[in-house]
Amino acid sequence: METNIIYLPIIMAIIGLIFMVVKAGWVKKQPAGSDKMQSISKSIKEGALAFLNAEYRLLFIFVIIASVALFGISVLVPTTSWMIVPAFIFGAFFSALAGNIGMRIATEANARTSEAAKTSLPQALKVSFSGGTVMGLGVAGLAVLGLSLWFLFFIGQFVGSSADFYSDMTIVLEALAGFSLGAESIALFARVGGGIYTKAADVGADLVGKVEAGIPEDDPRNPATIADNVGDNVGDVAGMGADLFGSYVATVLAAMVLGNYIIRDMSVDTPFVDAFNNMGPILLPLVIAGVGILASIIGTFLVRISSNDAREAQVQRALDTGNWVAIGLTLLSSYFLIQYMLPEMMYMNLFGRSEAVAVPSINVFWAACIGLAVGALISYVTAYYTSLGKKPVMDIVQNSSTGAATNIIAGLAVGMKSTFWSVLLFAVAIYGSYELAGFYGVALAASAMMATTAMQLAIDAFGPIADNAGGVAEMSELEPQVRERTDILDSVGNTTAAVGKGFAIASAALTALALFAAYVTFTGIDGINIFKADVLATLFVGAMIPVVFSALAMKSVGKAAMEMVQEVRRQFREIPGILEGTGTPEYGKCVEISTKAALKEMLLPGLLTIITPIIIGLLLGAEPLGGYMAGVCVSGVMWAIFQNNAGGAWDNAKKSFEAGVEIDGEMTYKGSPAHKAAVTGDTVGDPFKDTSGPSMNILIKLTCLVGLVIAPILGGHHNDSAEVVDHNQQQKVISVTLASEKDGQTTATIKTLEVQSGKEIASESIIGGTSEEIQQTIEKVKGTIE
Amino acid sequence: METNIIYLPIIMAIIGLIFMVVKAGWVKKQPAGSDKMQSISKSIKEGALAFLNAEYRLLFIFVIIASVALFGISVLVPTTSWMIVPAFIFGAFFSALAGNIGMRIATEANARTSEAAKTSLPQALKVSFSGGTVMGLGVAGLAVLGLSLWFLFFIGQFVGSSADFYSDMTIVLEALAGFSLGAESIALFARVGGGIYTKAADVGADLVGKVEAGIPEDDPRNPATIADNVGDNVGDVAGMGADLFGSYVATVLAAMVLGNYIIRDMSVDTPFVDAFNNMGPILLPLVIAGVGILASIIGTFLVRISSNDAREAQVQRALDTGNWVAIGLTLLSSYFLIQYMLPEMMYMNLFGRSEAVAVPSINVFWAACIGLAVGALISYVTAYYTSLGKKPVMDIVQNSSTGAATNIIAGLAVGMKSTFWSVLLFAVAIYGSYELAGFYGVALAASAMMATTAMQLAIDAFGPIADNAGGVAEMSELEPQVRERTDILDSVGNTTAAVGKGFAIASAALTALALFAAYVTFTGIDGINIFKADVLATLFVGAMIPVVFSALAMKSVGKAAMEMVQEVRRQFREIPGILEGTGTPEYGKCVEISTKAALKEMLLPGLLTIITPIIIGLLLGAEPLGGYMAGVCVSGVMWAIFQNNAGGAWDNAKKSFEAGVEIDGEMTYKGSPAHKAAVTGDTVGDPFKDTSGPSMNILIKLTCLVGLVIAPILGGHHNDSAEVVDHNQQQKVISVTLASEKDGQTTATIKTLEVQSGKEIASESIIGGTSEEIQQTIEKVKGTIE
């Protein structure tokens, strides 16, 4: 059993994918409604597929260029295999596939949800949530399957090629990083492109349709209405699917890389041995991910309501039940898996500690618990700042009475304030999980948050499906009861989306830190010291990137929305009878505008993200790149929380007026000046929460992944250990790192380890001189200590 | 001459203060206009003084509490003298005094400027700029005088008390840090309080007056109009005066502290000796500051126009001439002073380098040039993003045509995008000045930017005076020509204010870095390594503080503005004939509301800034506090640039409509829907650019100053050199730093320096064990090497 445990996640992934196919078949068997409904649904599907296909054509070019670059790296660097290239391509392909599966099922499920809503609310929930489940299992199944198969394949290729297990495994994981890089790159473009698409269509449709022509949302007379519904699918569904696929893979990968360092640290005197082919710490995150799929499947069975009179609270409770059961089962299994797969006592070389620290394996479980607890608390904070009826949203509502300006100020302030508890909790998660089990603990905390991705995504994806179902109902002019039922689902979907974002940010940031730790260890640099001017300078540059990225994304939405506005105005002007419902709008034109704009505009922010770290790494070296990565993470987390929460709060402030709110003792409703101010706030919040905000996650992870992949080629800070370090066991010199030559002077750092009266003493010397002098000194040091 | 050079800055400061008194006398001798004008001016002055007095009462309590805390520190820590307490009190007092002087002259100059504008534009410029000059010289004169006198006094007290000049000087500079801390604390409260006051009054007056009642700006029927004008003085004048006073002192102090490190680094074998009582590098920044005052005075003579038909461009050119002459003169003098006062070749121990680096003194001059060049370029970038007619502002204008939402999105994007070049330039400044002359170079780059503070402030302060003069003209119903002339001055003032902000941010950030460097060196920690989990966690917490601070400041403005709105509405309702001009509004009530709200609301953000670093330092130690400081700096710089530039761009987008702009081929003017959207954007931008944005400067500097002052009490990382290091010259062990005990284990870092074949080899060992074991190891190391 033990030696074959790598097959466990593969089996779980396959079970997940089979269950997905079954669920998808069930959804497709549901009645799809009237011809009109089917035709609308078909238009949406075709528009979405047209966008995805255009996007794939563009990304195909990107993948080819990136593959060539990666191949170049693999030629230059001995520790990087050329197999990083196929892994990268597969990562990109799987990511796109995951988004595609989700998008297809979502466009199948929308009309079927409206049709089911004719019968009952429980049935509508069942159909829409099944759609979400298909997507969740697709993402999780493909991620675990892809990672496991490539890992298995690479192990066969590389492990055992030299006597040093750790070095072989480093090559394996470096190649596997290619899979993650591929996934995350596609995720970035999908998220940004989808985000621009959906908001351009949404804002464009609203500005001319609702505001200028005075027709309701999703009205078939609005030429941009199909584009708007397509946008929900390519942005909220396909974009999110690719995003979470990337996150999931990156989190598991980071934990695996850090697991390998445990093996290294425990192989000082004798090689590390365990029952799991000597790689328990590396396999653990994969196995937990596999178990998470099973737990998620079980959880999905619990998401159901029985009463047709159920309201938001009951639907929410059903989702919560499923979610928490999935989390609970995963955590319980993790407890046993950790005990089973990790050595009872692990030894880790924590940075800045003189000796290897003994860490009981149970600490890893506690780190995972911290991850989950903090994730849940951050979600709670997110929900507080963005929920209907809570103080922050009510505050924005109150401030709407004096106009759009005060509404905007209040919303910005809510978003900014919400960073306080989120960041404090996050700091506690870093500190706590690190204290428990080093960066492996941090990575496992992130893994715990991501383990039930299948369930999380099912919950996240059912919202847009219900939203679309409402659109189909409106456009097909179904009875109001149908819209009411889909609205209940949509409203719950909004809340769960906000909560999901809290988890996503927290896990992305922890993953980025784990990748960051992997990067530092991998490059062999001595930490990231911001007391060096170049590191400090790149820390600032890194912190600027998320800000500029957000600006680019927002501007893109603005530009694309303007084009949409012009087109809708043109159609209203030129097509006779369009507003009376006798002329047919040219929906396709609007779809085309959104498609073109999104593809054009996603390139600059995407390339900025990928190319900047490469330039900094090549120009300045490994430690400044580390500073850059830290800057991107720190600033990215702030801007993600700020933008997501401000956007969510504005949205719900606007929604508050639908049921009516009391302002200065008077009930105020839709259509009032205060409501108009709130609509303005919501429009500002749209690109915040659906375009730039969610991209921050990917931005920070992708930055760290790019760093990790290019780490071996960074000049000036390479480990020159082969040359001067003798690997026999008496040897006390751990490593010699040569720093860059400057003014004819070479500097080297010598790390030594000495055992004195049972205590290990680590020491580090920086020496300078010509290379000959350094060579002499090294010999002398070795002589002295031996 | 050389030994008495400390008297040079004192003389310059006194010359500056005498010139200030003469100028102030001249302003007061100018005709003050009609009784009505004098009465309005008097009301403004009384309101402003009432606010300042109330503020001082509150700050008096703060100063007492802080003094007790500082006294406590001085008792606990041997390197901190109790004299830090009087220095702190004087710093606070001088800062308040500087703001007060500026505010008094500004309220004298406003009506006199309107009166002068009756005659001619050149005369109006002369009066308003003279007012500004008084303020500029007051701030610079008091800063240089205060610093020099305390420095002189402390030298008499402490230098020579032990054989070690460097240690004595450390005590001097630590005590002098108290002066800077006092100045910066008051600056924070003055800036935040003033910022809240002015925007609450402004927004409140506009929302009810302009929007609801439809009466123009500065109309005497508006009860909030006096409060609005008072706000200009307490915020833009007194607040800014205290702010720049604090910046100036902090910059010079940081450079002095880093100068002391040069002396230490050059005293390894024999004590450092020069003609300036052996403290040339410490005195240099003070002397440059003194020379800057003289250069500024000369520059002010060049600010004049002759033609009464001059427009903005001519006024701008006059200001530019004066400014650049002052800068040129200071730079020229610096060139000679640097050659004169610094040893031709300096040796600095740069972090991460094995040997002391030889730095020719001329490098310091080049670092100063980099500082000025980058400061000028950042100002240029700022001007580009915020100026009338340039692409970013025009973009906001175009986006106003589709409503407030698109205007806001465009404005936010402009602010965010503007971080790109500013931060890149800033990174170049850090890297370049550091490469040239280490952190001393960074500090001198900042000093060069701040050297002409007197002139900068004169230019900055004349704007609000002209703005107020326009208000007085409007309220006294003077002929339109007067308002036109003051409007020209006001408009130029807006541009110079934006440019000045670019300089202020850049210099504040560089100063913060210099303080940060001083902190790291002072605590004796081995850099700030963000690869340690606790440092990483505090980096995130630090980055969150500017965001939350900004939110608090913005919310405060919102709350106070709401109270103002209620009061103005009440007066319109209850006072008969008020809108017809027959009833008299109760101006005092509005002044009182702004005063109370500002004082109440400034406390939380102020205390957050001061207390958080203390908590982090005491709980987690020196290195995590360093991470926190870095986080505050990095994030603070982004949010400062973002908020200032977005606010400035919105303001000018709104102003664009006054002359008319072409949107979609149609000329659009004031009163159009697009203009209304632009007004909304401007209202959002108001707290950005006048409350939270400018506070970021102070926030980052104050955080670093608090860190520097509490550095000696941070447990766990103190230099235990007295115990184990033998200071004779054969001694090769440089220092032993004991880190905190943990689980009965003590860790110590031993730094050694060894000369081998003519090369110095610095090495550093981290050892762990019980204290006895460590003692043994230390003895052994000493034995081995000697």
TrEMBL record, chains A, B:
<keyword id="KW-0813">Transport</keyword>
<protein>
    <recommendedName>
        <fullName>Putative K(+)-stimulated pyrophosphate-energized sodium pump</fullName>
        <ecNumber>7.2.3.1</ecNumber>
    </recommendedName>
</protein>
<dbReference type="GO" id="GO:0009678">
    <property type="term" value="F:diphosphate hydrolysis-driven proton transmembrane transporter activity"/>
</dbReference>
<dbReference type="GO" id="GO:0004427">
    <property type="term" value="F:inorganic diphosphate phosphatase activity"/>
</dbReference>
<feature type="site" description="Determinant of potassium dependence">
    <location>
        <position position="497"/>
    </location>
</feature>
<feature type="transmembrane region" description="Helical">
    <location>
        <begin position="602"/>
        <end position="622"/>
    </location>
</feature>
<dbReference type="GO" id="GO:0012505">
    <property type="term" value="C:endomembrane system"/>
</dbReference>
<feature type="transmembrane region" description="Helical">
    <location>
        <begin position="503"/>
        <end position="523"/>
    </location>
</feature>
<keyword id="KW-0915">Sodium</keyword>
<keyword id="KW-0460">Magnesium</keyword>
<dbReference type="Pfam" id="PF03030">
    <property type="entry name" value="H_PPase"/>
</dbReference>
<keyword id="KW-0406">Ion transport</keyword>
<dbReference type="GO" id="GO:0005886">
    <property type="term" value="C:plasma membrane"/>
</dbReference>
<feature type="transmembrane region" description="Helical">
    <location>
        <begin position="6"/>
        <end position="27"/>
    </location>
</feature>
<feature type="transmembrane region" description="Helical">
    <location>
        <begin position="171"/>
        <end position="190"/>
    </location>
</feature>
<keyword id="KW-1003">Cell membrane</keyword>
<feature type="transmembrane region" description="Helical">
    <location>
        <begin position="324"/>
        <end position="342"/>
    </location>
</feature>
<feature type="transmembrane region" description="Helical">
    <location>
        <begin position="408"/>
        <end position="431"/>
    </location>
</feature>
<feature type="transmembrane region" description="Helical">
    <location>
        <begin position="362"/>
        <end position="387"/>
    </location>
</feature>
<feature type="transmembrane region" description="Helical">
    <location>
        <begin position="535"/>
        <end position="554"/>
    </location>
</feature>
<feature type="transmembrane region" description="Helical">
    <location>
        <begin position="245"/>
        <end position="263"/>
    </location>
</feature>
<keyword id="KW-0378">Hydrolase</keyword>
<keyword id="KW-1278">Translocase</keyword>
<dbReference type="InterPro" id="IPR004131">
    <property type="entry name" value="PPase-energised_H-pump"/>
</dbReference>
<keyword id="KW-0630">Potassium</keyword>
<feature type="transmembrane region" description="Helical">
    <location>
        <begin position="83"/>
        <end position="106"/>
    </location>
</feature>
<feature type="transmembrane region" description="Helical">
    <location>
        <begin position="127"/>
        <end position="151"/>
    </location>
</feature>
<dbReference type="GO" id="GO:0000287">
    <property type="term" value="F:magnesium ion binding"/>
</dbReference>
<comment type="subunit">
    <text>Homodimer.</text>
</comment>
<dbReference type="GO" id="GO:0030955">
    <property type="term" value="F:potassium ion binding"/>
</dbReference>
<comment type="function">
    <text>Sodium pump that utilizes the energy of pyrophosphate hydrolysis as the driving force for Na(+) movement across the membrane.</text>
</comment>
<feature type="transmembrane region" description="Helical">
    <location>
        <begin position="437"/>
        <end position="459"/>
    </location>
</feature>
<keyword id="KW-0472">Membrane</keyword>
<comment type="similarity">
    <text>Belongs to the H(+)-translocating pyrophosphatase (TC 3.A.10) family. K(+)-stimulated subfamily.</text>
</comment>
<feature type="transmembrane region" description="Helical">
    <location>
        <begin position="283"/>
        <end position="303"/>
    </location>
</feature>
<keyword id="KW-0739">Sodium transport</keyword>
<feature type="transmembrane region" description="Helical">
    <location>
        <begin position="58"/>
        <end position="77"/>
    </location>
</feature>
<dbReference type="GO" id="GO:0006814">
    <property type="term" value="P:sodium ion transport"/>
</dbReference>
<keyword id="KW-0812">Transmembrane</keyword>
<keyword id="KW-1133">Transmembrane helix</keyword>
